[in-house]
Amino acid sequence: MKSIAFFNNKGGVGKTTLLCNVAASLALKSKKKVLVLDADPQCNASAYLLPDKMLESILMDGAHQSIDAFFEPVRRGHGYSTSIPTIVRSERFGVDVIVGDPKLSIREDLLATDWAATRNGDPRGFQTTFALRELVDRLENYDYVLVDMGPSLGALNRSVVLAVDYFLMPLSVDIFSLMAVSNILKSFANWRGSLIGALERYNIDEGVPFQVRNKVVEWDLKFAGYVMQQYTAKKKEGVRQAVDAFENIIKKQNDELELLCEFFDVQLADVNLGEVPTLSSVVPLSQQAHAPIFDLGAKDGIVGSNYNRVEEAGSFYHAIARKLNGRMA
Q: What DSSP string runs through 61-90?
């Protein structure tokens, strides 16, 4: 099983749309067994993947075990829950889903407080910090676990980053997305340094390394790659070139990405997973139908030139999914 967090602390880069459509491509086109874990308190992935009535029924069902509930035994000092959150099926996307929970935002305080304890080598702090890794590692019967995250660099997202094997970054060509790359790199460097020191203190104090499900914990996050939202361009001799307004941002963004690649010891060319075109005309229809963009049809309101957009979306998302799958091999 490979776990991948889709992450950018800049909002509006199409993160959830990318995740859900790549998940569907991996499941429907590549026949992979995929689970989407919605760790964003805004629950956008859950709302996209599941019909409204189904999602409402799940959230109102008293028997539903939410992702937030997984933290409750840890908060009480009782260790990890013996069960996992409820898993439901998104038929149109062909994936399983652990539904998000708005109460996750409240867990920021617990995770932030216990991160301080983790840095001091405290076992209770480690247990809280790595609760999501415990959960992700229990999902070993899937080929892929894809994790949706909110756009922040807070304690919740830090715990997600420490739980997964890889992170994937959606990007757009704008100054705020450029700054986000720099912010993420600084945060990762800080988290890595703090974790390494904490693990050393735990080992000294406890006489054994900290483990999750019988595996020694270390900083082992890898960079799966990035996906760029297509920017305004002109064609010169048949080749797309950025208009002047974007050229400077693209150059600086590539410089920041080079630094990120250096941090993860990968080559920039290897982690470019592709581009996604502007699909504003069909994204709302996809959300309304709770279906992948590339699977939309007449019953979902597709007419006229929108069929071309649907076909175009399929070629982009399938290409990204293939390249991502190749990176995991």
A: -TT---TGGGGHHHHTTS-S-SS---EEEE
Residue 277's alpha-carbon distances to 28, 274, 301, 311, in angstroms, are 21, 10, 20, 12
SS3 240: strand
Count Cβ atoms below 10 Å from residue 323 Cβ, excluding itself: 17
Q: What is the CA radius of gyration of the chain?
A: 20
Write down the domain spans for the chain: 2-328
Distance set, CA 220 to CA 9, 163, 216 (Å): 21, 10, 11
Q: Buried b / exposed e across 59-75, counting CB within 10 Å, b at 16+?
A: eeeeeebbbbebbebbe
State whether the Cα torsion 243-249-255-256 is positive or negative: negative
Cβ neighbours of 187 (radius 10 Å) = 16
In order along its 329 residues, the chain shows pLDDT tens digits of 999 999 988 766 689 999 999 999 999 999 999 999 999 999 999 999 999 999 999 888 777 888 988 888 888 877 888 889 999 999 999 999 999 999 898 888 899 999 999 999 999 999 999 999 999 999 999 999 999 999 889 999 999 999 999 999 998 766 666 678 889 999 999 999 999 999 999 999 999 999 999 999 999 999 999 998 865 544 455 555 555 566 767 777 788 899 999 999 999 999 999 988 877 789 999 999 999 999 999 998 898 888 888 998 899 999 999 999 999 98
pTM, 2 dp: 0.92
Can you tell me which residue has the tokens 């509930």? 69
Domain 2-328, what fold? Rossmann fold (3.40.50)
For residue 6, CA distances in Å to 40, 109, 170, 195 come to: 11, 23, 7, 21
